[in-house]
Amino acid sequence: MEIGFWKNAAQSPERIALINVDGSRITAGELYAESNRVVYGLRALGLKTGDTVAVSLHNEVAMLELSLATAQAGFYFTPINNNLTAREFDYIAKDSEARVLIVSGKAIETSRTLDFPSERRFSTEAAPGFRAYAELKKNQPATLPVDRSVGLVMNYTSGTTGQPKGVRRSPPPISPDDVAARYAQFLMLFGMQPGEGVHLVVSPLYHTAVLSFAFNHLHLGHTVALMDKWTPEGMLERVARDCVTSSHMVPTQFNRLLQLPDEVKHRYDLSSLRHMVHSAAPCPVEIKRKMLAWWGPVIYEYYAASEGGGTLVSPQEWLAHPGTVGRAWPTAEIRILSDAGSPCAPNEVGTVYIKMANYSFQYHKDQKKTESAWRDGFFTVGDAGYLDQEGYLFLCDRKADLIISGGVNIYPAEIEAVLIGHAKVSDVAVFGIPDDDWGEQVKAVIETKSGVVPSPALVEELLGFCKCELAPHKCPRSIDFTDAMPRDPSGKLYKRKLRDPYWQDRDRKI
Questions:
Q1: Of 2, 67, 149, 503, whose CB count within 10 A is highest?
Q2: 122 has which bridge partners?
Q3: Coil/strand/helix, residue 224
Q4: For a pLDDT cut of 90, what percent of the chain falls above it?
Q5: Cα atoms in the Cβ-side hemisphere of radius 13 Å centred on 300
Q6: Digit-coded pLDDT (tens) for 214-266
Q7: Are strands 246-249 and 198-201 parallel, antiparallel or unpaired?
Q8: Mean confidence (pLDDT) of the chain
C-alpha cells in the first residue's frame, strides 16, 4: 500500500480512516475530500504560506481535517488547550499571530472576548458570534489543492519565564507526501507496519504527542478511533469493540486501569493490542511491570519533548533494563553534559542533550531562550539523567521545576506569576509533590505580607484567586505558609529545600 495519507486515500478511498466518538465511520475518501476543502476555504480567507491557524477543539473529526489541511498548505497549526482561561487563551492566540481561530466546547466562551475578526472565527457547534465550521468548506473543491507545501504544528511549551513559547520549525524543502512518509516511518521504529491497524486516541488531541501519533497513524494507513472522555473501563470496551492495535498513553492511565476490579479487567478481549506506547511522565517501575504482566509485551516507551527527541525502548529491552527510557532513535544522538559542558562518563548524571539529523527549532519570538537550549548542534529541555555502558538513557529528574501531573506539563513560574499578584502575598514558590494517582500534584508555599496572618480562610481566598486566572489543572491543590523563603543574598530561591521533604520517602528516579 501507499505510505502517506493523501496517496493512500486516493488509492483506497473506501478504507475506514476514522471512527468517531459516537462510533460513526468516516472513509479515507471522505476525510481526504473534507481536508482538501478546508485548504481552499482557508486560502479563500486570504491565508498565505507561513500563516497560523489556531484551534481549540474536542477530540472530533474537524481536528484531523484541519491537521491534514494545514500540513499540505504550508500553514502553521497551533492547538490550544480548551481548559485555559481567557487570559491564557488570549496570550497564545496573539503570540502565535493566528489568522484563523476554530473552537468548540469551553473554548467558545473562553475565546469570545478575544479581539479577533468575526469573519475568521469559527465553531464546530452553533454559537452566536462564530461562523459555522461547515461554512469554511462550503462549495469548495474536494480535489487535491494546487501549490501544495509542507505545513507544521507549532505547539506551545513553557519555561522559566512562565509564559508559553511556540516551538517553531522551518518546513523542510520537500513535498508534503515525502514528509508524510517520514511520519509513517517514525512509527515503524516501534515495529508498526503499514496496512491494518486501529489507533485509539485516549487523551486530548491538543497535546503534542497525542496529535502527532494520531496524525502519523493516518499516514501509516491505520484507522484512528477517537475517545473524548477517557475512563478505564471505557477504554477496555473500545479496545474490544474496535479491535484496537495501538494507543498513546500516560502512566496515570495505567494506574487507573490497574485499579479496576479483576472481573472488569478480564471482561474484555484485549488480544488485538500490539503497540501501546507511553511517554510524557515518569512511570513507576512496579506499575509498568504490572501492566506488562496483564497486557503482555506490547508496551513501548519513548523519551521526547515538544522540542523533539529522543529515545525508544521495547518491552523486552525494558524488562532487561528496568527504568530506562531507551536508546537513541536511529536519527538521533544523546549526549550527557556536565554543568561545565564536558561529556559525562557512563552512569554519571548530567544534563540530557539531543541531536536530530537535519533538524532545528526556535522558540517563537524568544531568541534568548532558543540560544540557551542549544549547544554544538544539540538541544536540551533541562532534564537530568545518565547513559549506562550500553547507551540506555535513565532520567534522574525532569526540568528543574516542571510538574507533570497525569502526563500534562505544568509550569510553576506561570502559577507563581499569578499568585505574586495577590495583595496579601509577599513571596511564593510552586512545585510538585507526590500524588499516587496523578504522579504529582501542585503545591504552593506562600510568604505573606507583613501583618497578614495565615489561615484556612486565606487558603480559600488564594485558591479562588487562582481559579479565576488559571486553568483547573494548574491551580494548586494545597497551600502551605512559611515565615521566610529560602533565598540566598542574590535572591536565588532554593526551591529544593521546600520540595525535598515531600519526596524524602519517595524515589523520584524514573
A1: 67
A2: 102, 131
A3: strand
A4: 77
A5: 21
A6: 999 999 999 999 999 899 999 999 999 999 999 999 887 898 899 899 999 99
A7: parallel
A8: 92
Pick from 2, 123, 145: nearest CA to 70: 145
- The answer to whether the CB of 329 falls within 8 A of the CB of 311 is yes
Least confident range of 21-25, 145-149, 308-312, 502-506: 502-506
Can you list the positions of beta strands (E) in 314-436?
A: 327-328, 332-337, 350-356, 362-363, 374-375, 378-379, 384-387, 393-397, 403-405, 408-410, 425-435
CA distance linking residue 508 with residue 152, whole number of Å: 35
Which residue is it, cell 475518501?
A: 29
Beta carbons within 8 Å of 393's beta carbon, 6+ residues apart = 303, 311, 324, 325, 326, 327, 328, 334, 352, 385, 386, 387
Q: Are strands 275-278 and 165-168 parallel, antiparallel or unpaired?
A: unpaired
Q: Please calculate the CA angle 334-388-339 and round it to the nearest 5 degrees.
A: 55
Which residue from 172, 156, 168 is spatially nearest to 362, judged by alpha carbons? Answer: 168
The type of residue at 249 is: M
First-to-last alpha carbon distance for the chain, in angstroms, is: 39
Classify domain 403-503 by CATH architecture: 2-Layer Sandwich (3.30)
DSSP letter at 221?
T
How does pLDDT run across 374-428, given as a tens digit for each residue? 999 999 998 888 999 999 999 875 656 778 888 887 878 788 888 988 999 988 9
Which residues neighbour 340 within 8 Å (Cβ) at sequence distance 6 or greater?
Answer: none
Does this model's pTM top 0.70? My answer is yes
3-state SS class at 132? strand
Beta-strand pair 152-153/76-79: parallel
d(CA 288, CA 437): 14
d(CA 79, CA 209) in angstroms, rounded, equals 12
Task: Report whether pLDDT(47) > 90.
Answer: yes
* Count of residues in the chain: 510
Q: How far apart are CA 151 and CA 71, in angstroms?
A: 4
The CA R_g of the chain, rounded to the nearest whole Å, is 23
Contact yes or no for 90/165 (Cβ under 8 A): no
Task: For the sheet with 362-363, list strands across it.
Answer: 156-157, 165-168, 362-363
Task: Specify which residues 363 forms β-bridges with.
Answer: 167
Amino acid making up residue 253: Q
Closest CA to 28 of 9, 11, 54, 45: 9
How crowded is the C-beta side of 384, counted as CA atoms within 13 Å?
14
Query: What single-letter amino acid sits at 375?
Result: R
Q: Please choose, from the candidates 57, 356, 314, the residue with its C-alpha nearest in 3D space to the C-alpha of residue 204.
A: 57
**Domain residue ranges in the chain:** 403-503
